[in-house]
Fold:
Amino acid sequence: MLGIVRQKMLEQSLKKIPPAVSVLRSYSSAAKQCYAAWYASCPGLKVLAPYSSEDARGLLKAAIRDPDPVVFLENELLYGESFPVSDEVLDSSFCLPIGKAKIERKGKDVTIAAYSKMVGYALKAAETLEKDGIDAEVINLRSMRPLDRSMINASVRKTSRLVTVEEAFPQHGVGAEICASIVEESFAYLDAPVERIAGADVPMPYAANLERMAVPQVEDIVRAAKRTCYRSVS
Structure:
């Protein structure tokens, strides 16, 4: 009952306050947890998770201009990484549409859908898979709500295989929502069961060595993609 009351209070509050962008940062073990699925389950919110400098610039501008409340999830581990930036991105008018994913790498054998830091891991996994003759397509989701179901389904209908990757907990995650969408709209196109890679179902540890055990790694993505392609996994 308390949860229902709090949700109704949120709904009423959203009608009375001006649109806002929430940028979430933290510098404790809580910062390492992924809350995308939590926020994406709330009607009325838009939830974004940038991966590159292009994403950060274009999506933040879109969030500021959007009339609805937007949650902008930054991964602090991406702050120290460098990304190529085109002249188009540097243009003052550059802005990205909310709810539109991006194909970071085209492929024909398996679709890997990820967001935030996991996009980089997916791209590294695709490079490894290429050495084994597997051509992976990598989708940068960018937006958790709304979710670009159209692009994801189109990719899976081409590759006939899917691996979802996220740092969040495995239950009720973004990957689960994507898998449900594929089953509902593209099940007949699948040549293998979908693979879902997520964080361990445990509270996020603070120690770096334990954190590595709790979040997906590149090798996890590689093994999952190979399983969908019926390749031997070491």
About this structure: The first strand starts at residue 21 and ends at 24. The mean pLDDT is 88. The first helix runs from residue 2 to 16.
